[in-house]
Amino acid sequence: MLWYALLVGAVAAERGVELVVALRNARWSLARGGVETGRGHYPPMVALHTGLLAGCLLEVVLGDRPFVPALGWPMLGVLLCAQGLRWWCVRALGRRWNTRVIVVPGLPLATGGPYRLLRHPNYVAVVAEGLALPLVHTAWVTAVVFTALNAVLLTVRVRCEETALRTAAAGVRP
Q: How much is the pLDDT for 170?
């Protein structure tokens, strides 16, 4: 269990680094006329992702979940791939990457890196991580609950992003 707690802690630390990068990038975007939309769904998103981390640990301890190598090792591989994809997205978007929806009018749509393959690759990473991290240690309730709630939240988030991108491309301020 200690190693799993360290893994969840490492994911939490990675999230902390993401927030530092996002704050820096938000300042850059806003200084260039960036417009933030979707503020209302951001607090529930933070709560859900915090709940994922807490749920992983609580379910393993309270539910006495075992480590099942046939499930745990492949899920660790999925988790590591998800982290790689996430940071590929961060690198591809550069200063435009953010945990918030901030669009700088006039900047072209990203088409490099994973964005040449998928419209929203960062969310593929989020979905994979939300399934894999709990299942590394058979926290299946956390995986199911997070995935269901995240599906609802991502529906809102993707619609928000698509609207913001269309609005910016049309040269209209929301």
A: 63
